[in-house]
Amino acid sequence: MKRFIVITLLVLLLAMPLVFAGGDKEAAAESEKVIRVAEQVPGLITPGVWDGQAFSMNSSIYEYLIEINADTGVIDPLLATSWESEDGKRWVFKLRDDVTFHDGSKFTSEDVKFTIERTQDPDVGHLQRQDFSIVESIETPDDYTVVLNLSDSFPTFIYRLTDYNMMMLSSEYDYASLGESKPMGTGPFKMEQLVPKESALLVKNTEYWDASLPKVDKLLIYFVPDIDASISMLESDRVDIVPFVTPTIKNRLEGVDGISIVSPYQEHRFIAMITDMEPFDDNRVRLAMKYAMDPEVIARSVAKAELNDGVFYNESPIISGLVQHKDIPFRGRDIEKAKALLAEAGYPNGVSVPLTYASDHPYGKELAQTIQELAAPAGFDIKLQGYTRDVYLSQYWMNVPFSITGWGVRIDPYMMLSLAFKGGGPWNESHIDNPRVNELIDKISSETDADTRMAFYHELQDIFYEEGSIINVEVPLLIAVNDRIVNYSHPVSQIPQYKYMDVK
Amino acid sequence: MNRTLSIFVQRLGSLLATLVVMSFIIFLLVEIMPGDVAQMILGQSATPESIAALREARGLDDPLLQRYGRWISGVVVGDLGESVYMRGVAINSILWRRVGHSLILALTAFIMFVPLSIFFGILAGVKEKKPTDSIISFFGLATMALPEFVSGVILITIFAVQLQWFPIVSVIPIGESIWSNLNILFLPALSITFVMFGYISRMQRSSMITVMNSDYVRAAILKGMPKKYVIFRHALKNALLPTITIIGMNMGWLFGGLVVVETLFGYPGMGSLMMTAIKTRDVPLIEACVLLITIIYSLSTMITDIMYSYLNPRIRFQGGQR
Questions:
Q1: What ipTM score was computed for the predicted complex, to two decimals?
Q2: For residue A436, how far is the Cα from the chain centroid?
């Protein structure tokens, strides 16, 4: 008996390699086109409260009234065929008449009305509630026309419809109870199978209104908690796309055949100096910090890139790629001047200040260390305090004198200004409350003349240069893509467009 | 046999008591973890109102004991609640699939490391102080000293990158089941084997040496019994006892230790699920995972105790002699 057990175990042990050596099966039949993505594990995915993770999934299932062209950056029609507003107050949208939801129901003006009214529903906790509180009433003269009446003139209102939480929803679908488990929209792909926290299988929507799209048959999305495991999957050809990689991983992948790093656009890293806490409550200390910076060193050490080629540096919140951006030449690194400014402000022997940041966010650690080194000769003794991003955002952000925060781009800079740089703004992280800045932000929102608006923008950036509360380092968003993928499409609205992508 | 039964009842009682205490400790620990759930869920685009609304809706502002009561009364009837994120999706529907995957991995590792380490432990014990013994002991120490995330990377480099025999990551392709992808189990199971091998084989070796030096074994050899017969008939039976205890005790540890291996290999088991839950402050899911590991740990310890008392007459009959 004993011998039998021993022999059985030994046989099992020997047989094991044979079982395991089942070998790698070919992923899919040759005729089927598949794109495989490794994403972070998403949090909430219900439209309205979606936290902006797992972009590949939601952006393929849902659709918006308009989209941003990834090549030109202009607004293209999508579910809306046209829109017009003479006074910036009354907006008329014409809709496509050939669109159906995945559940078979027709997409009409009622659904647009439902989607926009839903932003104000307190039960939803919609993240766009404030931005859409200006919509006073919605008319639906016929099935394919929607009229939005705003409380005031908002000439750039159209941009708010590019927010990733503003996808069009069906008025007949129960998103409150099904939004997490059975997402449903008008998009180019349909949810076939969702294994919570593990994977999603999306298939081509054969009823899609543009018969030529999407280009591939299936979208396989793996939710991988660990970015290094995602990269291993990419290297072993188990996935084709890994979004949001760090500069370290970029360097590692640069020598790998068949994998490219694409950088569709830049994102903000705001180095915020809080204006009502020591020592940055004195503008001279903020200026001293700015004089201690060296943009070229920052670009090289943070992203291994040259300045103005991948990494940009400026002292106002308006990102370099936008037309509203005013090109102000860099003030030049001047340590003596920085020291003098610090002494004038009452810190002749230098000043010690903690710098708080999210250590696991791309560029966070690199940027913090570079600033620490650059500011030291001027007399800044910076103590680095890195936390994981969730802890940073929930416990430190907005409450510490000196911090680094990653911000996505808002195509209409007004959206960013009113959120983060206006006195009383909900995410005013640097606590800036400059009367002229507040006034300019208000004027920008209601000014209908484009040239005047531009002049306001330029004046605002001059103020930020002199007494602003941030240093704005623009870093490239990095996405690792297998060379098999053709036409990786990802506009600055942050919403990747998988329908345009193809497989070689 | 009655003695075994009374041990069983005793153990069961203390198991239940342990679980009650543990459940409260788990709840408290998760409670004091830094990071706010509502803030986590809503991310950077959260507004104070939306955070307040969410806290209200999820009952996050209720008193501690009330929330504990709500949770534990659900757990008792098998309802682990809903994940913070997946509204309308019960944790039961996420967790058990992952637990199944983890069990398969643990079992695979078990089948690999138990015969291996016992066999080499016996060999080292019998060949005490000979080169065979030195080699086995050295190898055991070396693998034991390497944590899983180091040995795992070494194994990946050798078997997946250089030889390309096994996949680098242990992900189940979408639309397929674990059964058609058994090859993904090998590397994670091997890195678990590495850690367990040193521990168990050394245990087996030392108990083998003790038994081989005991009087009855020496007597058996002296009376001219074949050495093989003595080793397998007499010595092994007694030398296996401590090893069984160690294996049993480690089953619980093994299950908790899967977190590292599963995360490293991207294997969709309970360990990596727990990792995700902790990262995203998914409180109900963390509680469910930790509680389950506690249960498995306690159960495996209990089973080991009972098995030990069954195998060892001295413990079984102790009650009668008192």
A1: 0.74
A2: 29
pLDDT tens per residue, range A298-343 = 999 998 888 888 899 999 999 887 888 999 988 989 999 999 999 9
**Of A3-17, A215-229, A362-376, which range is least confident?**
A3-17
User: C-alpha angle B187/B193/B194, rounded to 5°?
Assistant: 95
pLDDT reading at B217 higher than 70:
yes
Give B-chain residues touching A428 at CB under 8 angstroms. none
User: What is the helix (H) or strand (E) element at residue B288, kind and residue range?
Assistant: helix B283-311
Listed residue (B251, B177, B187, B144) closest to A16, CA to CA: B187
Please give the interface size between A and B, counted as residue pairs whose CB atoms are below 8 Å apart: 178
What part of A 406-465 touches B (C-beta under 8 Å)? 407, 426-427
Whole-angstrom distance, CA of residue A241 vs CA of residue A502 = 12
Nearest CA to CA, how far is B95 from chain A (Å)? Answer: 10
pTM over 0.90: no
Q: How far apart are CA A475 and CA A406, in angstroms?
A: 10
CB distance B39–A390 less than 8 Å?
A: yes
CA distance B88 to chain A (A): 6
pLDDT in tens, B63-105: 888 888 888 888 888 888 777 776 667 788 888 888 889 989 9
Name which of A388, A390, A418 to mutate to probe chain B: the one with the most chain B Cβ atoms within 10 A of its Cβ.
A390
Q: How far apart are CA A179 and CA A173, in angstroms?
A: 9
Tell me which of A232, A387, A397 to substitute to probe the interface with B (most B C-beta atoms closer than 10 Å). Answer: A232
As given in the structure block, the two tokens for residue A371 are 């600033």
Amino acid at A466: E
Contacts of A456 (CB under 8 A, 6+ apart): A440, A443, A444, A447
What are B173-188's pLDDT values in tens digits? 887 888 888 888 888 9
Q: Nearest to residue B116, comparing CAs of B242, B182, B201, B202?
A: B201
**3-state secondary structure at position A74:** coil
Tell me, letter by letter, the H, E, C secondary structure of A371-434.
HHHHHHHHCEEEEEEEECHHHHHHHHCCCCCEEEEEECCCCCHHHHHHHHCCCCCCCCCCCCCC
Task: Give the Cβ contact number of residue A455 at 10 Å.
Answer: 14
At residue A274, the pLDDT reads 94
- How far off is chain B from A179, nearest CA to CA, in Å? 8
Q: Rounded to the nearest 10 degrees, what angle do helices B236-265 and B186-212 cross at?
A: 160
Tokens representing residue A274 in the block: 């809080």
Chain B CA closest to residue A236: B168
B168 neighbourhood in chain A, CB within 8 Å: 232-233, 235-236
Q: Are A34 and A220 in contact (CB under 8 A)?
A: yes
pLDDT at A353 (0 to 100): 95
**Residue whose token pair is 């018969």:** A211
Q: Which of B45, B94, B264 sits opposite A127 (nearest CB)?
A: B45
From the CB of residue B63, how many other CB atoms can be counted at a distance below 10 Å?
A: 8
SS3 of A142-178: the string is ECCEEEEEECCCCCCHHHHHHCCCCCCCCCCCCHHHH
